[in-house]
Amino acid sequence: MTDFIDLRSDTVTRPTPAMRKAMAEAEVGDDVFGDDPTVNSLQEFAADLLGKEAGLFVPTGSMGNQVCLGALARPGDEVVCEAGAHFLHYEGGSVAAHLGLVARPLPGDGAIITAHQVAGVIRPGTEHNPRTAVVAMENTHNSAGGRVFPIDEARAVAKVAHDQGVAVHIDGARIFNAQAATGLPAREWADCADTLTFCFSKGLGAPIGSMVVGSAEILKESHRIRKRLGGGMRQVGVIAAAAQVALETGVDRLAEDHANARRLAEGLAELDPQAVDLDLVETNMVYLNLVPFNRTGPEVSAALKVDGVLTLGPPGTTMRLVTHRDVSAENITSAGAALSRALLG
Ligand SMILES: Cc1ncc(COP(=O)(O)O)c(C=O)c1O
Fold this sequence. Notes:
With 345 residues, the chain is α/β, with parallel strands linked by helices.
Protein backbone atom coordinates (compact mmCIF):
# COMPACT_ATOMS: atom_id res chain seq x y z
CA MET A 1 0.00 0.00 0.00
CA THR A 2 3.01 2.30 0.30
CA ASP A 3 2.83 3.38 -3.36
CA PHE A 4 -0.77 4.52 -3.04
CA ILE A 5 -2.03 7.95 -2.06
CA ASP A 6 -4.07 6.78 0.88
CA LEU A 7 -7.10 8.99 1.64
CA ARG A 8 -8.99 6.34 3.63
CA SER A 9 -8.21 7.75 7.07
CA ASP A 10 -5.65 9.67 9.11
CA THR A 11 -5.03 6.43 11.01
CA VAL A 12 -2.94 4.95 8.18
CA THR A 13 0.29 6.87 8.84
CA ARG A 14 3.39 4.86 9.63
CA PRO A 15 5.69 5.77 12.50
CA THR A 16 8.44 8.27 11.65
CA PRO A 17 12.14 7.42 12.16
CA ALA A 18 12.05 9.62 15.31
CA MET A 19 9.15 7.57 16.67
CA ARG A 20 10.88 4.27 15.90
CA LYS A 21 14.04 5.50 17.60
CA ALA A 22 12.11 6.62 20.67
CA MET A 23 10.35 3.25 20.77
CA ALA A 24 13.63 1.35 20.57
CA GLU A 25 15.18 3.41 23.34
CA ALA A 26 12.14 3.74 25.64
CA GLU A 27 12.63 3.10 29.32
CA VAL A 28 9.89 0.69 30.34
CA GLY A 29 8.33 -1.03 33.35
CA ASP A 30 5.12 -2.86 34.16
CA ASP A 31 2.42 -0.24 33.67
CA VAL A 32 -0.22 -2.33 35.46
CA PHE A 33 1.96 -1.74 38.55
CA GLY A 34 2.34 1.93 37.54
CA ASP A 35 6.04 1.27 36.93
CA ASP A 36 6.48 2.45 33.37
CA PRO A 37 8.31 5.79 33.46
CA THR A 38 7.62 6.58 29.80
CA VAL A 39 3.86 6.09 30.27
CA ASN A 40 3.86 8.03 33.52
CA SER A 41 5.61 10.99 32.00
CA LEU A 42 3.34 10.94 28.92
CA GLN A 43 0.26 10.92 31.16
CA GLU A 44 1.59 13.88 33.15
CA PHE A 45 2.59 15.76 30.00
CA ALA A 46 -0.84 15.27 28.42
CA ALA A 47 -2.75 16.17 31.59
CA ASP A 48 -0.70 19.32 31.93
CA LEU A 49 -1.23 20.27 28.29
CA LEU A 50 -4.99 19.89 28.63
CA GLY A 51 -5.13 21.56 32.05
CA LYS A 52 -6.32 18.48 33.93
CA GLU A 53 -5.09 16.73 37.05
CA ALA A 54 -4.41 13.32 35.57
CA GLY A 55 -4.04 11.31 32.39
CA LEU A 56 -4.59 7.65 31.56
CA PHE A 57 -3.02 5.99 28.53
CA VAL A 58 -5.39 3.65 26.68
CA PRO A 59 -4.88 1.57 23.55
CA THR A 60 -7.67 3.15 21.47
CA GLY A 61 -10.07 6.05 21.25
CA SER A 62 -12.94 3.60 21.61
CA MET A 63 -11.59 2.43 24.94
CA GLY A 64 -11.01 6.06 25.89
CA ASN A 65 -14.69 6.83 25.38
CA GLN A 66 -15.70 3.77 27.38
CA VAL A 67 -13.48 4.41 30.38
CA CYS A 68 -14.75 7.99 30.54
CA LEU A 69 -18.45 7.30 30.10
CA GLY A 70 -18.22 4.33 32.45
CA ALA A 71 -16.62 6.48 35.13
CA LEU A 72 -19.24 9.21 34.81
CA ALA A 73 -22.40 7.10 34.63
CA ARG A 74 -23.95 3.99 36.14
CA PRO A 75 -25.75 1.22 34.23
CA GLY A 76 -29.26 2.40 33.34
CA ASP A 77 -28.17 6.04 33.11
CA GLU A 78 -28.52 8.09 29.97
CA VAL A 79 -25.84 9.74 27.86
CA VAL A 80 -26.97 12.66 25.74
CA CYS A 81 -25.02 12.96 22.50
CA GLU A 82 -25.26 14.07 18.90
CA ALA A 83 -27.04 11.59 16.62
CA GLY A 84 -23.91 10.89 14.59
CA ALA A 85 -21.60 10.38 17.58
CA HIS A 86 -18.73 8.01 16.87
CA PHE A 87 -19.33 5.93 20.00
CA LEU A 88 -22.93 5.43 18.98
CA HIS A 89 -22.25 4.11 15.48
CA TYR A 90 -18.70 2.87 15.15
CA GLU A 91 -17.64 1.33 18.46
CA GLY A 92 -19.54 -1.94 18.37
CA GLY A 93 -22.38 -0.79 20.60
CA SER A 94 -19.96 -0.63 23.54
CA VAL A 95 -21.97 1.96 25.44
CA ALA A 96 -24.86 -0.50 25.67
CA ALA A 97 -22.95 -3.78 25.66
CA HIS A 98 -20.23 -2.94 28.17
CA LEU A 99 -21.55 -0.01 30.16
CA GLY A 100 -25.33 -0.59 30.21
CA LEU A 101 -26.01 3.01 29.23
CA VAL A 102 -28.95 4.38 27.28
CA ALA A 103 -28.04 6.84 24.53
CA ARG A 104 -30.19 9.92 23.97
CA PRO A 105 -29.13 11.09 20.50
CA LEU A 106 -30.03 14.64 19.49
CA PRO A 107 -30.05 15.82 15.86
CA GLY A 108 -27.24 18.36 15.60
CA ASP A 109 -27.18 21.33 13.29
CA GLY A 110 -24.20 20.26 11.17
CA ALA A 111 -23.55 17.82 14.03
CA ILE A 112 -23.37 20.55 16.65
CA ILE A 113 -25.79 20.11 19.54
CA THR A 114 -26.82 23.28 21.31
CA ALA A 115 -27.20 24.22 24.96
CA HIS A 116 -30.87 24.87 24.24
CA GLN A 117 -31.38 21.32 22.96
CA VAL A 118 -29.49 19.82 25.88
CA ALA A 119 -31.45 21.87 28.42
CA GLY A 120 -34.65 20.44 26.96
CA VAL A 121 -33.74 16.79 27.50
CA ILE A 122 -31.84 16.56 30.78
CA ARG A 123 -33.92 14.60 33.28
CA PRO A 124 -33.19 13.70 36.87
CA GLY A 125 -34.32 10.08 36.67
CA THR A 126 -37.42 8.77 38.32
CA GLU A 127 -38.88 5.30 38.68
CA HIS A 128 -39.84 5.77 35.01
CA ASN A 129 -36.96 7.61 33.34
CA PRO A 130 -33.28 6.94 33.04
CA ARG A 131 -31.17 9.55 34.83
CA THR A 132 -29.21 11.85 32.52
CA ALA A 133 -25.66 11.36 33.74
CA VAL A 134 -23.47 12.64 30.90
CA VAL A 135 -23.61 14.99 27.95
CA ALA A 136 -21.06 14.08 25.29
CA MET A 137 -19.67 16.28 22.54
CA GLU A 138 -17.40 15.24 19.67
CA ASN A 139 -14.63 17.57 18.54
CA THR A 140 -13.81 17.46 15.74
CA HIS A 141 -16.90 15.62 14.57
CA ASN A 142 -15.95 12.73 12.31
CA SER A 143 -19.20 11.90 10.53
CA ALA A 144 -19.95 15.60 10.07
CA GLY A 145 -16.79 16.06 8.03
CA GLY A 146 -14.28 16.97 10.73
CA ARG A 147 -16.23 19.97 11.97
CA VAL A 148 -15.02 21.93 14.97
CA PHE A 149 -17.38 22.21 17.94
CA PRO A 150 -17.65 26.01 18.44
CA ILE A 151 -16.12 26.89 21.78
CA ASP A 152 -18.92 29.24 22.86
CA GLU A 153 -21.52 26.53 22.30
CA ALA A 154 -19.34 23.97 24.08
CA ARG A 155 -19.14 26.28 27.09
CA ALA A 156 -22.89 26.85 27.01
CA VAL A 157 -23.61 23.09 26.77
CA ALA A 158 -21.23 22.44 29.66
CA LYS A 159 -22.89 25.12 31.80
CA VAL A 160 -26.38 23.72 31.21
CA ALA A 161 -25.15 20.23 32.07
CA HIS A 162 -23.08 21.17 35.10
CA ASP A 163 -25.81 23.41 36.52
CA GLN A 164 -28.00 20.33 36.69
CA GLY A 165 -25.34 18.03 38.09
CA VAL A 166 -24.72 16.29 34.77
CA ALA A 167 -21.15 15.47 33.73
CA VAL A 168 -19.57 16.40 30.40
CA HIS A 169 -17.39 14.20 28.22
CA ILE A 170 -15.60 15.27 25.05
CA ASP A 171 -14.63 12.72 22.45
CA GLY A 172 -11.66 14.74 21.29
CA ALA A 173 -10.12 12.04 19.12
CA ARG A 174 -9.01 14.93 16.86
CA ILE A 175 -9.02 17.77 19.40
CA PHE A 176 -5.68 19.05 18.12
CA ASN A 177 -7.22 19.45 14.66
CA ALA A 178 -9.73 21.78 16.33
CA GLN A 179 -6.81 23.64 17.88
CA ALA A 180 -5.01 23.92 14.53
CA ALA A 181 -8.17 25.11 12.77
CA THR A 182 -9.08 27.81 15.27
CA GLY A 183 -5.85 28.78 16.99
CA LEU A 184 -7.56 28.11 20.32
CA PRO A 185 -5.61 25.83 22.67
CA ALA A 186 -7.20 22.40 23.06
CA ARG A 187 -7.41 23.02 26.79
CA GLU A 188 -10.19 25.56 26.16
CA TRP A 189 -12.46 22.65 25.22
CA ALA A 190 -11.00 20.47 27.96
CA ASP A 191 -12.01 23.18 30.45
CA CYS A 192 -15.64 22.49 29.52
CA ALA A 193 -15.37 18.78 30.21
CA ASP A 194 -15.00 16.43 33.15
CA THR A 195 -13.27 13.93 30.88
CA LEU A 196 -11.73 14.24 27.45
CA THR A 197 -10.12 11.59 25.29
CA PHE A 198 -7.82 12.22 22.33
CA CYS A 199 -5.95 9.97 19.93
CA PHE A 200 -2.24 9.83 19.13
CA SER A 201 -2.92 7.47 16.26
CA LYS A 202 -4.86 9.84 14.00
CA GLY A 203 -3.55 13.17 12.70
CA LEU A 204 -0.72 13.22 15.23
CA GLY A 205 0.68 10.19 13.44
CA ALA A 206 1.61 7.70 16.18
CA PRO A 207 1.06 4.00 15.48
CA ILE A 208 -1.07 3.26 18.56
CA GLY A 209 -2.64 4.89 21.57
CA SER A 210 -5.04 7.39 23.02
CA MET A 211 -5.15 9.46 26.19
CA VAL A 212 -7.88 10.21 28.68
CA VAL A 213 -7.61 13.30 30.90
CA GLY A 214 -9.70 14.42 33.84
CA SER A 215 -9.63 14.77 37.60
CA ALA A 216 -7.58 12.28 39.63
CA GLU A 217 -10.78 11.01 41.24
CA ILE A 218 -12.63 10.30 37.99
CA LEU A 219 -9.56 8.78 36.39
CA LYS A 220 -9.17 6.39 39.31
CA GLU A 221 -12.49 4.88 38.26
CA SER A 222 -11.50 5.02 34.56
CA HIS A 223 -8.37 3.07 35.49
CA ARG A 224 -10.49 0.33 37.06
CA ILE A 225 -12.70 0.16 33.96
CA ARG A 226 -9.65 0.04 31.69
CA LYS A 227 -8.48 -3.06 33.55
CA ARG A 228 -11.95 -4.59 33.37
CA LEU A 229 -11.99 -4.10 29.60
CA GLY A 230 -8.63 -5.81 29.26
CA GLY A 231 -6.75 -2.57 28.63
CA GLY A 232 -4.15 -2.95 31.38
CA MET A 233 -0.89 -3.05 29.43
CA ARG A 234 2.58 -4.00 30.66
CA GLN A 235 5.84 -2.58 29.18
CA VAL A 236 3.78 -0.20 27.11
CA GLY A 237 6.38 2.55 27.25
CA VAL A 238 7.48 1.30 23.82
CA ILE A 239 4.21 2.65 22.48
CA ALA A 240 3.96 5.66 24.75
CA ALA A 241 7.39 6.78 23.51
CA ALA A 242 6.03 7.11 19.96
CA ALA A 243 2.93 8.87 21.29
CA GLN A 244 5.15 11.39 23.10
CA VAL A 245 6.98 12.17 19.85
CA ALA A 246 3.61 12.49 18.08
CA LEU A 247 2.34 14.98 20.65
CA GLU A 248 5.52 17.03 20.57
CA THR A 249 5.93 17.10 16.79
CA GLY A 250 2.52 16.29 15.30
CA VAL A 251 0.39 19.21 16.42
CA ASP A 252 2.12 22.02 14.55
CA ARG A 253 1.92 20.28 11.18
CA LEU A 254 -1.85 19.59 11.28
CA ALA A 255 -2.42 22.92 9.50
CA GLU A 256 -0.78 21.36 6.41
CA ASP A 257 -3.38 18.59 6.40
CA HIS A 258 -6.13 21.21 6.64
CA ALA A 259 -4.68 23.21 3.75
CA ASN A 260 -4.44 20.02 1.68
CA ALA A 261 -8.06 19.08 2.46
CA ARG A 262 -9.23 22.56 1.49
CA ARG A 263 -7.35 22.47 -1.82
CA LEU A 264 -8.76 19.04 -2.59
CA ALA A 265 -12.28 20.25 -1.73
CA GLU A 266 -11.94 23.40 -3.84
CA GLY A 267 -10.82 21.29 -6.82
CA LEU A 268 -13.84 19.02 -6.39
CA ALA A 269 -16.18 22.00 -6.10
CA GLU A 270 -14.84 23.21 -9.44
CA LEU A 271 -15.92 19.90 -11.00
CA ASP A 272 -19.43 20.49 -9.67
CA PRO A 273 -20.62 23.04 -7.10
CA GLN A 274 -22.75 20.34 -5.43
CA ALA A 275 -19.77 18.01 -4.96
CA VAL A 276 -18.63 19.49 -1.64
CA ASP A 277 -20.06 21.89 0.89
CA LEU A 278 -16.97 24.03 1.31
CA ASP A 279 -18.32 25.60 4.50
CA LEU A 280 -18.07 22.19 6.19
CA VAL A 281 -14.42 21.64 5.29
CA GLU A 282 -12.82 23.00 8.43
CA THR A 283 -10.07 20.46 9.16
CA ASN A 284 -8.62 17.36 7.44
CA MET A 285 -11.74 15.74 6.00
CA VAL A 286 -13.67 16.22 2.77
CA TYR A 287 -17.08 14.64 2.32
CA LEU A 288 -17.67 14.22 -1.39
CA ASN A 289 -21.23 14.06 -2.71
CA LEU A 290 -21.30 11.62 -5.65
CA VAL A 291 -24.89 12.34 -6.71
CA PRO A 292 -24.02 15.07 -9.26
CA PHE A 293 -21.67 12.61 -10.95
CA ASN A 294 -24.20 9.78 -10.98
CA ARG A 295 -21.63 7.43 -9.42
CA THR A 296 -21.60 5.19 -6.34
CA GLY A 297 -18.86 4.89 -3.73
CA PRO A 298 -17.67 1.42 -4.82
CA GLU A 299 -17.48 2.48 -8.50
CA VAL A 300 -15.46 5.60 -7.77
CA SER A 301 -13.27 3.79 -5.27
CA ALA A 302 -12.44 1.03 -7.76
CA ALA A 303 -11.56 3.56 -10.47
CA LEU A 304 -9.37 5.54 -8.06
CA LYS A 305 -7.50 2.45 -6.93
CA VAL A 306 -6.45 1.68 -10.50
CA ASP A 307 -5.18 5.28 -10.60
CA GLY A 308 -3.16 4.88 -7.38
CA VAL A 309 -5.54 6.45 -4.85
CA LEU A 310 -7.07 4.54 -1.96
CA THR A 311 -10.49 5.52 -0.57
CA LEU A 312 -13.00 3.71 1.60
CA GLY A 313 -15.74 3.68 -1.06
CA PRO A 314 -18.66 2.68 1.16
CA PRO A 315 -22.01 1.85 -0.41
CA GLY A 316 -24.05 4.96 -1.11
CA THR A 317 -23.30 8.33 -2.58
CA THR A 318 -21.02 10.01 -0.04
CA MET A 319 -17.29 9.46 0.12
CA ARG A 320 -14.99 10.61 2.94
CA LEU A 321 -11.49 11.73 1.94
CA VAL A 322 -8.98 12.30 4.73
CA THR A 323 -5.62 14.07 4.62
CA HIS A 324 -2.73 13.25 6.96
CA ARG A 325 1.04 13.35 7.37
CA ASP A 326 1.70 10.80 4.65
CA VAL A 327 -0.22 12.75 1.99
CA SER A 328 1.86 15.59 0.54
CA ALA A 329 0.70 18.70 -1.31
CA GLU A 330 1.98 17.04 -4.50
CA ASN A 331 -0.12 13.94 -3.70
CA ILE A 332 -3.18 16.18 -3.43
CA THR A 333 -2.59 17.47 -6.95
CA SER A 334 -2.35 13.87 -8.24
CA ALA A 335 -5.38 12.74 -6.20
CA GLY A 336 -7.39 15.70 -7.53
CA ALA A 337 -6.56 14.69 -11.11
CA ALA A 338 -7.45 11.04 -10.39
CA LEU A 339 -10.76 12.10 -8.83
CA SER A 340 -11.55 14.24 -11.85
CA ARG A 341 -10.97 11.22 -14.14
CA ALA A 342 -12.98 8.89 -11.90
CA LEU A 343 -15.92 11.26 -11.53
CA LEU A 344 -16.14 12.71 -15.04
CA GLY A 345 -14.53 10.02 -17.16
C1 LIG B 1 -14.38 10.84 16.75
C2 LIG B 1 -13.78 9.49 17.01
N1 LIG B 1 -13.83 9.00 18.26
C3 LIG B 1 -13.30 7.81 18.56
C4 LIG B 1 -12.67 7.05 17.60
C5 LIG B 1 -12.16 5.68 17.96
O1 LIG B 1 -10.79 5.58 17.90
P1 LIG B 1 -10.10 4.14 17.76
O2 LIG B 1 -10.21 3.76 16.33
O3 LIG B 1 -8.70 4.39 18.22
O4 LIG B 1 -10.85 3.21 18.66
C6 LIG B 1 -12.60 7.53 16.29
C7 LIG B 1 -11.94 6.71 15.22
O5 LIG B 1 -11.90 7.06 14.08
C8 LIG B 1 -13.17 8.78 15.98
O6 LIG B 1 -13.16 9.27 14.74
